[in-house]
Amino acid sequence: MFRCTILFFFLSLTLQAQTSCSLESRQKLEKELTKISTKQSSDRTIQDLAVEIGKDFLATPYVEKTLELPGEEQLVINLMGVDCTTYLETVIALARLAQNGDYTFQAFEKELELIRYRRGKNEGYSSRLHYFSDWMYANGEKGLFQDITEEIGGIPYSNTPSFMSENPQFYPQLADPKNLAAIKVTEAEIGKRNYFFIPKEKISSLEDSIQSGDIIAITTSIPNLDMVHVGFAFEKNGRIHLMHASSKNAEVEISQMPLHDYLSGNKSQSGIMVSRLSGQ
Questions:
Q1: Cβ distance 149 to 203 under 8 Å?
Q2: Domain membership flag for residue 140
């Protein structure tokens, strides 16, 4: 046991500055990779895999700002605590590995970097997909999934986020003028695109078009933000619920209320965008 611990320690040291992964996260990841490697996954849809793997993380603590490390941008791998976006990224990366049949740490590292960064490679802080609408667009361009919102009845969504550039005090890396300028460029590009959303009052009438494993992005009425929360669709008792990392309940959970009811009680949540994962 002591020898294994030392081995993991040295493996962590050899990840170099580009990747940050604690011993505990590495061990949890290796355990999950071993678990999914024992199942017949190649003939299953990536949606099904995302749901099954997503459930493995139920009760994982909600922890925000795990990606905000000082210094040069690093690929952060943290399975001990997740926020709503890092939960999605972790599960999608694992589901893609399960479908592809590659269960190595290095393969996970590569998939996570592909998902998290604009061109699929860590090229610094501004290359990370900070706004989720930008995350959806960039990963759609990579062929990882398809935004089906308009197809299932969505209407145009005015999307001109500017929160980051207007509030650089919340983002230490934006003290660097180059990063701040790059974020302003990203915000301008987002504002030129066409986005669609399903108003929350229409969700119940359209939820038959939503499948378990679909990516659900919750839009907002706050003008300088694009999304306020994300998760996976999860069908339960014939209704669509949300499987997500909940800040309110401080853990990964499946919402007790159906998605329609989950949004109806929150004035700042205006509706949803829906994306469907693509197999490899």
A1: no
A2: no
CA-nearest of 132, 197, 123 to 164 is: 132
Phi, psi of 225 (to 5 degrees): -120, 160
- Domain total of the chain: 2
Closest CA to 111 of 69, 81, 79, 77: 77
pLDDT higher than threshold 80 for residue 5: no
- The residue behind tokens 């976006």 is 85
- What number of other Cβ atoms are within 10 A of residue 99's Cβ? 21
Q: What is the CATH number of the domain that holds 110?
A: 1.10.3670.10
Give 112-166 pLDDT, tens digit per residue. 999 999 999 999 999 999 999 999 999 999 999 999 999 999 999 999 999 999 9
- Quick one: 160 and 273 in the same domain? yes
Residue range of the domain that includes 177: 145-277
255 and 25 Cβ atoms separated by less than 8 Å: no
177 and 79 both lie in a single domain: no
